[in-house]
Write a structure and sequence with these properties.
The protein is of the alpha+beta class and about 525 residues long. The chain is built from 19 helices and 26 strands. The strands form 8 sheets. A 7-stranded mixed β-sheet has the order 6-12-13-19-16-15-14, sandwiched between helices. The chain has a 5-stranded mixed β-sheet with strand order 23-22-24-25-26. The radius of gyration is 26 Å and the shape is globular.
């Protein structure tokens, strides 16, 4: 290994947007680790590059998205360790569908619980609903989805595969170019100018861009001739809008208040195969804040801050996150921005915050014929509330958290361990119970498991050496392992091993529960 590396070399192996001299000079992580400022040396060469200590380079590589991390590594870990499986795999799969396995469903459920806790449980002005997936078709006429909802797609003339043009551009540029404000002609010109080829066959031979409505259509009725056309909802927010009056009345809610929901949506997406990033069936966590227009921008900015604070609290690093204001707004929107995350495929949208004005309630008032006006009980003013929307995909956030948590650590003995540094509150299993010797300690280990499993999710593993069992738990992100051994049999104490530090402590069995509960608070 070389003692020093050039800045140009660093730029090659790191995401360029996440790497700058300013970031290095002000890097709080490095100062906290070493207690000194990062050392920079100017090299007198034609390139005027900078040299710096290799240890710092390695640390920066660990802090920023590692060059070794690929989506393939995440997919492989997910499949081999029970996070996510291909949908309908025994039938050779079904494109763009995924099944969450025993480990993945716990991780995703913990993420949803964390979101609900922060945005519903801890907010006295937010109320939850669980609206129906199938809605009156007029809902989608009012929302504009029937007439105007569509994606810009183009076909490869060689292999006949279909792709979203905007996705082709954003993937090619690693997220540095946003196609949302481009016209069809501008997207076609960009694809031609940059020689973007088909991700499936590699040929550059495209059709012109055409609009496709991605809503799934089904029917309701016992006889096909009499069946009514209905849609699988392409978004969850309409369920909150149509229940505005119900929630306001039954909860005696006063503006500003929010309606929140976690639920499935469906879009007939043409995806480039980026795992959970874009699928045809996905789960959204979102809320709609109903407010007076005079306070709407303040609330919009507040939710930008809350949204960023939330994902950081789950473990996503600040240098992997950025705001991206929309280049092009819908005609009714007053403001819109995304929080983007630095995935292995580049900067991509993680969640959105939108100022939608009074468009949604006005449309449903028009199409339903129901009065959606709110009367302020203090001023007697009647008005249609503005809506601030905050939406984040549970599947996409799960993917981001797995990408952030994944690490390959070189140990002192030269071995490498794969470890998922998941926030303890998100970890699928909080603790794994390990009998040191299967015959001698399993019965006592079962007793410990029964005590702890009443409080949180636990795993039990009695197969293989203790080292191999530790590694298996590291790979699924279990923060603590409890080893039952001879000391347990003699004095009722166990050894607790920490996932991140690999340090071990000894505790009495009756103190384990409180110890773990304190560590997994969120």
């Amino acid at each position: 290994m070389k003692k020093v590396a050039t800045l140009e070399h660093a730029k090659e192996i790191l995401p360029f947007d996440a790497f700058s001299l300013k970031a290095i000079k002000e890097n709080a992580y490095y100062k906290a680790l070493t207690g000194v400022e990062p050392r920079l040396k100017k090299q007198s060469s034609p390139y005027q590059t900078f040299l710096f200590d290799m240890g710092f380079l390695m640390y920066i590589r660990r802090i920023f998205m590692k060059e070794k991390l690929t989506m393939d590594k995440i997919v492989n870990l997910c499949k081999t360790r029970g996070f996510v499986f291909p949908g309908s795999e025994i039938y050779d799969g079904f494109a763009n569908t995924w099944d969450f396995g025993p480990i993945g469903v716990e991780l995703k459920n913990n993420i949803k619980r964390a979101w609900w806790k922060k945005f519903v449980q801890e907010d006295k002005n937010t109320y939850g609903v669980d609206a129906a997936i199938l809605m009156n078709p007029k809902v989608w006429e009012a929302s504009g989805h029937v007439a105007n909802f569509g994606d810009p797609k183009m076909d490869c003339k060689n292999c006949k595969q279909r792709f979203r043009a905007d996705t082709l551009i954003e993937n090619h540029s690693k997220g540095s170019i946003s196609a949302e404000a481009m016209t069809n002609e501008e997207m076609e010109a960009y694809i031609e100018e940059h020689n973007i080829s088909c991700p499936h066959c590699g040929v550059k031979n495209w059709t012109q861009i055409r609009k496709f409505n991605p809503m799934f259509i089904t029917s309701r009725g016992t006889l096909e001739a009499d069946a009514d056309k209905v849609y699988l909802r392409p978004e969850t927010c309409q369920g909150e809008y149509v229940n505005f009056l119900n929630v306001q009345r039954t909860c005696r809610a006063k503006v500003p208040f929010a309606i929140a929901q976690i639920g499935k949506s469906f879009r007939n997406e043409i995806t480039p195969g980026n795992f959970l990033f874009r699928t045809i069936e996905f789960e959204q966590m979102e809320l709609q804040m109903f407010c007076h227009q005079n306070e709407s921008m303040d609330i919009y900015n507040r939710y930008k801050d809350r949204a960023l604070s939330f994902v950081k609290s789950l473990g996503l690093k600040e240098e992997h996150l950025r705001f991206h204001d929309h280049d092009k707004l819908a005609h009714y929107a007053k403001a819109a921005c995304d929080i983007q995350y630095l995935f292995p495929i580049g900067w991509q949208e993680l969640n959105g915050i939108h100022h939608r004005g009074d468009w949604d309630l006005s449309r449903h008032q028009e199409f339903s014929g129901k009065n959606m006006l709110y009367m302020d009980p203090y001023t007697n003013e009647k008005f249609l509330p503005n809506v601030i929307e905050y939406s984040i995909g549970a599947d996409r956030l799960t993917l981001a958290i797995m990408c952030e948590a994944y690490d390959e650590e070189e140990l002192e003995n030269g071995d490498t361990r794969v470890v998922m540094h998941l926030h303890p509150a998100l970890a699928p299993y909080k603790v794994c119970i390990l009998p040191l010797m299967k015959k001698a300690h399993s019965e006592k280990a079962e007793e410990v498991y029964q005590i702890l499993s009443k409080e949180f999710m636990c795993d039990f593993d009695d197969a293989g050496s203790i080292g191999k069992r530790y590694r298996r738990q590291d790979e699924i992100g279990t923060p603590f392992c409890v080893t039952v051994d001879e000391n347990t049999m003699e004095n009722n104490t166990v050894t607790i091993r920490d996932r991140d530090t690999m340090e071990q402590i000894t505790l009495p069995v009756d103190e384990i529960k409180e110890y773990i509960l304190n560590k997994i608070k969120f």
